[in-house]
Each structure stands twice: as C-alpha cells, then as structure tokens.
Amino acid sequence: MLNRLKAPKGAVKKRTRVGRGEGSGLGKTSGKGHKGQKARTGGSTKLGYEGGQTPLHRRLPKRGFTNKFKKIYDIVNIERLSDFNKGDVVDRDALVGKGIVKNIKDGIKILGDGAIKVSLTVKANKFTAAARKKIEAAGGRAEVV
Question: What's the total number of domains in the chain?
C-alpha cells in the first residue's frame, strides 16, 4: 500500500518564508533588524575579524619552532608484546595485525616499560636500552630495521 504512505504527524514542517508581510512573524526586515552590516546582502565578516581592531591571533606572541623534518615514531611498550607466542617474529605487519599499532608514520620504537617472558625476534626502527636488555634477557633478539 505504498500509495497510502504518510509521514507521521509533526514530521513535515513548512519552511519559513521571510519577508512575506507582517502577519507571518518575519515580515518587513525579515528578522535581520534595522540597518547595519549584517542586515545587508552579503553582509558577513570573516572568521576572526574584529571590526578593524588587530585580531587576537596577531596580538598574541609567536613562540617556538616546528621542525618539519622531525620523525614521528609509534611507540610500543614491551609488555604489549606478551600477546605473541614463543618464537614469533614481531615486525610492522604483525603489530598492525594484532591491533597494537594503528597507523605507522615514520616507524616503530619499542620502549622498556613492563616485563616480557616470551622469547621473540623483534624487528623495529628503534629500541630503548632497557627494552633491548629485557628482550635479550627473555631469550629473544632485537633487530633494528
């Protein structure tokens, strides 16, 4: 009965037609008030414009420096590697497959937070000294890619 389908009560509302007489509630100035920049056609200011006053983003001091060549490593604590089985090779693909790392930017760095009891071959871009020591103490290998 597709020919009898009807929207529920209150679902369909007429759009407001401005400037159609005083009786409409939005007649005469169409809800824009009297005169001024915002009442005119195309009358709106850019974001951050303060009426000619020096904008806030220019008044505040500029500090620091951003190195555009900086490498951003995804960090993985050593305790997260306990999810792997003995003798596994833990590399970029294995970490993404397990969901430990989401989107790799410039590489992976293994940190030494936590403990590891499984011997693994871990392949990463960087290791902290503590991480390397713990991996080798568990009988594994830490290889820099």
Answer: 1
